[in-house]
Amino acid sequence: MAWSLLIRGGTVVDGSGAPGRRADVAVAGDRVAAIGPGLAGPAERVIEAGGHVVAPGFIDAHSHSDLFYLGCPSAESKVRQGVTTEVVGMCSFSQAPLRPEQREVIQGWAGGIGASLDLRWETFGQYLDALRAVRPSVNVAHFVGHGALRIAAMGFEARPAGPDDLRAMERRLGEAMDAGAFGFSTGLVYPPSAYSETDELIALARFMVGRGGLYFSHIRGESAMLLDSIAEAVRIGETGGVGVQISHVKASGRENWPKIDAALRLIEQARARGVDVAGDVYPYNAGSTKMDNLMPAWAHEGGMARLLERLADPAARRRIVAECLVDGERWRNVSQGGTGFDQIFIASCKRRELEGLNLAQLAQ
Ligand SMILES: [Zn+2]
Q1: Last residue of some domain: 17, 41, 56?
Q2: Is 285 among the domain residues?
Q3: Ligand 1 centroid vs 271 CA: distance in angstroms?
Q4: What is the distance in A from the centroid of ligand 1 to the CA of 61?
Q5: At residue 51, does pLDDT exceed 80?
Q6: Are residues 225 and 328 part of one domain?
Q7: Interval between CA 187 and ligand 1 midpoint (Å)
């Protein structure tokens, strides 16, 4: 038979953990049909891969590309790194569900990661339809963001969810999962996800039992609160009865680096008693997020418009500044000893001339 594609002479790293080996790879239609030395043609297309590695597509287990597919469905920044599957809807952020009157709130919240969003849907299923219509070049596994669930159920309010709020979140989580979502994600440093208590998250996890749902979490603290936060994620999975993925595991801030062994031990101990908990890491020692997250959670209540009002109010500003100077967890240890303002860089901004500046330079 004729192969559709023959990749010849490369070093095959197959993802099983086995060492790389020299082999040819033959593809028939959309399937790998044969792997071995000296595969013969004919083939519609032959790639000479000598000196290169041949590998299956990589899975990016933590991505925020969901904000960009509509504008850039070719997803070249990922494809050119070898990524063929992405997991999105991370850290409590997703662009659906949303109520029509909340478009502006969602725009300021999810769009803060750097995309300008054209939000034409209400349910998660409608959102997935809009995405399918542009045919992204990568495979995408979607999670529904806890922040989006919460905004749809109870607005941008800084309070625990009541029974009615919880039912409203469950209904939308069920809709999202019926439409194809793999589970839900939290970002417990990001309002409004940050306004939730552990019991709310256990209840939502329980709701997914029997539906195969997974809980992905940007945990409540990656610095001073690291160990408690990992314990909380484990507890949500263990009590809620679902698998847990701890996103971008790290000990943030030099003074917290020694905690990483204890953090990994917590995960290993949970796994040893049968909890399905795992984590992922990114392979660099920096983080990237929305800069409004440098400000305390209370300042965000009500959404972006209310945050801007508070920033214009002298008393609220003084309180925000004071809290930003306290060492510890939430506001990223920006005073002495921690990550300084000169180590926070503006990567993307509507005013392009500010990109590349650090926060200290911006202040000057
Ligand atoms: Zn995150």
Answers
A1: 56
A2: no
A3: 22
A4: 12
A5: yes
A6: no
A7: 6
Q: For residues 238-247, give the mean pLDDT.
A: 98
- The arithmetic mean of pLDDT across residues 58-66, rounded, is 92
Q: What is the pTM of this model?
A: 0.90
Question: 305 CA distance to ligand 1 centroid (A)?
Answer: 23
CA of 247 to the centre of ligand 1 (A): 6
Protein residues within 5 Å, CB atom, of ion ligand 1 = 91, 218
Within-domain flag for 286: no
CA 218 to centroid of ligand 1, rounded, Å? 5
Tell me: do 25 and 80 sit in the same domain.
no
- pLDDT for residue 113: 52
Together in a domain, 149 and 261: yes
Kindly state whether residue 164 falls inside one of the protein's structural domains. Answer: yes
Q: How far is the CA of 272 from the centre of ligand 1 (A)?
A: 26
pLDDT band at 331 (very low <50, low <70, confident <90, very high): low
235 and 325 together in one domain:
no
Q: Is residue 284 part of a domain?
A: no
CA of 7 to the centre of ligand 1 (A): 37
36 and 91 assigned to the same domain: no
pLDDT at residue 107 tops 60? yes
Q: Which residues form the domain of 125? A: 59-279
Q: How far is the CA of 89 from the centre of ligand 1 (A)?
A: 10
Same domain, 232 and 343: no
Q: What is the 3-state secondary structure (H, E, C) of the chain?
A: CCEEEEEEEEEECCCCCCCCEEEEEEEECCEEEEEECCCCCCEEEEEECCCCEECCCEEECCCCHHHCCCCCCCCHHHHCCCEEEEEECCCCCCCCCCCHHHHHHHHHHHHHHCCCCCCCCCCHHHHHHHHHHHCCCCEEEECEEHHHHHHHHHCCCCCCCCHHHHHHHHHHHHHHHHHCCCEEEEECCCCCHHHCCHHHHHHHHHHHCCCCCEEEEECCCCCCCHHHHHHHHHHHHHHHCCEEEECCCCCCCHHHHHHHHHHHHHHHHHHHCCCCEEECCCCCCCCCCCHHHHCCHHHHCCCHHHHHHHHCCHHHHHHHHHHHCCCCCCCCCCCCCCCCHHHCECCCCCCHHHCCCEHHHHHC
